[in-house]
């Protein structure tokens, strides 16, 4: 039986549906990840962050002076907490992240942490208690945002990360006091490919518009270049998990609920906006009526009437998933060709 191991990291994580309407709010945060150790006590994690002068915890301690950026972090925390509560989720999940430092219990503050997307490739069922070997072999991780070059080192040294997709926008970096350029340079120094797709936090409309780009970037690094890929937003709750949802459904052709089950199991705090996924899928299928007809009749679609039930809806869903998967497969061919052409151009220029 073949098993596929992926990893996910987060601050707070994201899984599913929050509300049926779109919001234009745009504050943001990211997630980073780390693997190797399974459990970190929040008290020990806080002590380690204090010793190395880490950000995120001191801002919320009693009696501390709160800066404008810290106030923005607190505002975003309150919003994440409310969204998680509305979705019936625990903000920090029902267990410690499998990599990195655990967030403090009962509140949100930044830590570098991640989880692994581990599932059986044949059955598409999540591996709830992965072995050390399965975690080591996992090629997809979701987590919180790295805030310094040192965090990049941790992701590489502790989790074996080879590629990173950053989903934070400028507002996220401002709120978290992140200097992007030193992080980008450290990735280059350590031979890690990093791509940034700027997506606004909490903004369902923007996330629906950018989901195809988010998924395409991840697909290039993970499938196209064959790299162990870390995807992060600020906390690893919404945008990062939405990207993995896009990858599993759009690139691998997985059914929505199976993909959601994998994400929620592997990253319990994840809360991807399902309404953004639905709208993005609708945009991908726009003007594709002829393609759907051809797929259903010639490309492995077929009629499942004899299986009973709502066979028309079932066959249409299969055709739609097949068409979208073909679209991303063809896009991957273009993206790989472009990346190889640029690499050759750079080498020839030397």
From TrEMBL:
<dbReference type="InterPro" id="IPR052832">
    <property type="entry name" value="Starch-Glucan_Phosphatase"/>
</dbReference>
<dbReference type="GO" id="GO:2001070">
    <property type="term" value="F:starch binding"/>
</dbReference>
<dbReference type="InterPro" id="IPR000387">
    <property type="entry name" value="Tyr_Pase_dom"/>
</dbReference>
<protein>
    <recommendedName>
        <fullName>Tyrosine specific protein phosphatases domain-containing protein</fullName>
    </recommendedName>
</protein>
<dbReference type="InterPro" id="IPR029021">
    <property type="entry name" value="Prot-tyrosine_phosphatase-like"/>
</dbReference>
<feature type="region of interest" description="Disordered">
    <location>
        <begin position="84"/>
        <end position="104"/>
    </location>
</feature>
<dbReference type="Pfam" id="PF22784">
    <property type="entry name" value="PTP-SAK"/>
</dbReference>
<dbReference type="GO" id="GO:0005983">
    <property type="term" value="P:starch catabolic process"/>
</dbReference>
<feature type="domain" description="Tyrosine specific protein phosphatases">
    <location>
        <begin position="209"/>
        <end position="268"/>
    </location>
</feature>
<dbReference type="GO" id="GO:0019203">
    <property type="term" value="F:carbohydrate phosphatase activity"/>
</dbReference>
<keyword id="KW-0378">Hydrolase</keyword>
<dbReference type="InterPro" id="IPR057023">
    <property type="entry name" value="PTP-SAK"/>
</dbReference>
<dbReference type="GO" id="GO:0009507">
    <property type="term" value="C:chloroplast"/>
</dbReference>
């Amino acid at each position: 039986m073949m098993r596929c191991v992926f990893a996910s990291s987060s601050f707070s994580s994201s899984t599913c549906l929050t509300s049926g309407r779109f919001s234009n709010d745009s504050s943001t945060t990211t997630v980073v990840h780390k693997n190797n150790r399974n459990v970190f006590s929040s008290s020990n994690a806080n002590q380690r962050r204090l010793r190395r002068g880490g950000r995120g915890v001191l801002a919320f301690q009693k009696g501390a002076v709160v800066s404008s950026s810290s106030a923005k972090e607190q505002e975003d925390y309150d919003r994440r907490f409310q969204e998680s509560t509305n979705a019936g989720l625990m903000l920090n999940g029902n267990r410690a992240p499998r990599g990195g430092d655990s967030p403090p219990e009962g509140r949100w503050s930044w830590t570098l942490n991640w989880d692994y997307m581990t599932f059986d490739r044949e059955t598409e069922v999540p591996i709830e208690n992965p072995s050390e070997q399965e975690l080591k072999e996992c090629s997809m991780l979701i987590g919180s945002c790295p805030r310094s070059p040192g965090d990049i080192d941790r992701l590489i040294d502790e989790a074996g990360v080879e590629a990173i997709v950053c989903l934070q926008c400028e507002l996220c970096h401002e709120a978290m006091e992140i200097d992007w350029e030193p992080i980008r340079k450290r990735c280059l120094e350590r031979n890690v490919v990093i791509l940034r797709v700027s997506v606004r936090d909490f903004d369902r409309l923007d996330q629906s518009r950018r989901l195809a780009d988010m998924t395409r970037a991840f697909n290039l690094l993970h499938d196209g270049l064959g790299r162990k890929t870390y995807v992060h937003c600020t906390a690893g709750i919404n945008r990062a998990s939405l990207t993995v949802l896009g990858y599993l459904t759009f690139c691998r052709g997985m059914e929505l609920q199976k993909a959601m089950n994998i994400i929620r199991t592997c990253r319990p705090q994840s809360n991807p906006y399902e309404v953004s996924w639905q709208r993005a899928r609708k945009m991908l299928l726009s003007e594709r009526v002829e393609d759907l007809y051809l797929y259903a009749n010639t490309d492995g679609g077929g009629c499942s009437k004899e299986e009973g039930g709502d066979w028309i809806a079932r066959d249409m869903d299969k055709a739609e998933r097949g068409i979208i998967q073909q679209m991303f497969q063809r896009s991957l061919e273009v993206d790989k060709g472009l990346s190889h052409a640029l690499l050759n151009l750079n080498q020839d220029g030397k």
